């Protein structure tokens, strides 16, 4: 009986409890999936979004299963297609780089905001700041030779 997929956490708990009867690594074209048997159930390993989790490299599956305590498993290569392995995903690489840049900027920005909030100096009222910058703009406009650029 094949039931709903297992997530990583559940599989790790089952392995720790010693109730996993068998694990089978099966080829899916150029990737590898995992089917787990425990009790009368047979369930595939799921990714975070609920679909079956697929690994690109057999070595990664081996490390994953050994890491959660499953040292013995079968490998089914019936559907293995070496021509479909190692597909490059430049679109995902670019998206991940952008996500990392955005996360770094967000971290920097939040630190700057927190630094400003933690500043012990008294705040300056908006009216005073506005008046100060109006005077500064007027001085710069006079230096530049006229009212150009002054926004009073």
Quick recap:
This protein has helices at residues 8-17, 58-67, 90-118, 126-144, and strands spanning 20-28, 31-38, 41-44, 74-76. By secondary structure, the protein is an alpha+beta fold.
Characterise the protein shown here.
- The model has no long low-confidence stretch (mean pLDDT 87).
- 45% of the residues lie in helices and 16% in strands.
- It folds into two domains: 8-84, no CATH class; 90-144, no CATH class.
- The chain is elongated.
- The chain is an alpha+beta fold and 152 residues long.
- The protein is built from four helices and four strands.
Supply the key terms:
single chain; 2 domains; four-stranded mixed beta sheet; 4 strands
Helix content: 40-55%
Give unreliable regions as ranges: none
Secondary-structure element sequence? HEEEHEHH
Across the major sheet, the strand order is 3-2-1-4
Instruction: Return Rg in Å.
Output: 30 Å
- Oligomeric organization of the protein chains: single chain
Count of separate DSSP helical elements: 4
The total number of structural domains is: 2
Mean pLDDT: 87
| Span of the ends, CA to CA | 78 Å
Structural class from helices and strands? alpha+beta
